[in-house]
Amino acid sequence: ITILGIESSCDDTSAAVIRDGALLSNVIASQAVHSDWGGVIPELASRAHSQNIVPVIDSALKKAGVTSDDIDAVAFTRGPGLLGSLLVGVSFAKGFSIAKNVPLIEVNHLQGHILSHFVELPDKTIEKPNFPFLCLLVSGGHTQIVLVRDYFDMEIVGSTIDDAAGEAFDKCAKVMGLPYPGGPLIDKLSKEGNPKKFKFAKPNIAGFDFSFSGLKTSFLYFLRDEIADNPNFIEENKADLAASLQATIVDILVSKVVKAAKEYDIEEIAIAGGVSANSGLREAIAAECSKRGWRAHIPEFFLTTDNAAMIAITGYFKYLREDFSSLDIAPIARSAEMGL
Ligand code: ATP
Ligand code: FE
């Protein structure tokens, strides 16, 4: 079974081909236009998707060594995401489904991030998670602890009450004068910094929920006070600030997911979403799990941020269940309306 997957929820246009669960190709066109603006500009994103989608799909088919005639179903991201961006992928998928007379399969972007752990790679054997497992889903728009009982039986057991972890990285990076998205830059700077140099307040939130807006505010006020004394404070402490900030965010994330694992008696933890590319988080999750004799699932880098491989694999599992969508399907922007 050969599935074409399409992802266009935010600022990356991506297409992938998966055959019987194994990845044949995954092509991503990232949009550079947004870094000048300090964030993703929806109108610019939709326009770039519109320009990129045909070449990206062509390239994914070519790299996979298939033609559009070999595709058994087309899977696309229905949401959550930016409506204008989603519309490009949804419309293309419908057109493809009609033209090639193949089933159309909607995919929840967040389920896609989680199920990215099931993509089989050509050059590496991965140990797929066993059900049930806990997934820490940390991205630009979401921060959740998900109890994954089966492919399509997922329950959110904790989530952020304000900002997402990726947002916390990006907003704090912005305060430091770094371009968007700041998360990867903080990660890079951290490698040369002292994570214990500065202490930032950690939120005290009950249960398995998260909060990051307080950290962002305290980071901002801390810098403002220091800059009043020394205008070069940020420049002189860049790496230590990044490392200390990253250590704080990672600690907040890891302590909650460990707490949830104990509560639900689960010994298998996966991380997914853009922030799961973070080296501090990857190391901390691996260390916590090995200390406790639990299994950690750390994704390949290309599967952390938005990609169509995760959409295609989710589409593949839906295909096996004959879970198809009708042609009048519309995208959904908000995750609250989509669930998991
Ligand atoms: P969502 O999936 O919630 O709709 P999204 O698709 O925009 O949001 P992703 O592409 O999954 O989000 O992740 C992007 C986020 O990941 C950004 O906030 C970015 O800063 C962050 N990020 C990427 N790499 C790193 C890294 N190495 N360290 C920290 N954050 C990172
Ligand atoms: Fe995403």
UniProtKB/TrEMBL annotation:
This is tRNA N6-adenosine threonylcarbamoyltransferase. The gene is tsaD. GO terms for biological process: tRNA threonylcarbamoyladenosine modification. The keyword tRNA processing applies. One of its GO terms (molecular function) is tRNA N(6)-L-threonylcarbamoyladenine synthase activity. It catalyses: L-threonylcarbamoyladenylate + adenosine(37) in tRNA = N(6)-L-threonylcarbamoyladenosine(37) in tRNA + AMP + H(+). It is found in: Cytoplasm. The keyword Acyltransferase applies. It comes from Mucinivorans hirudinis.
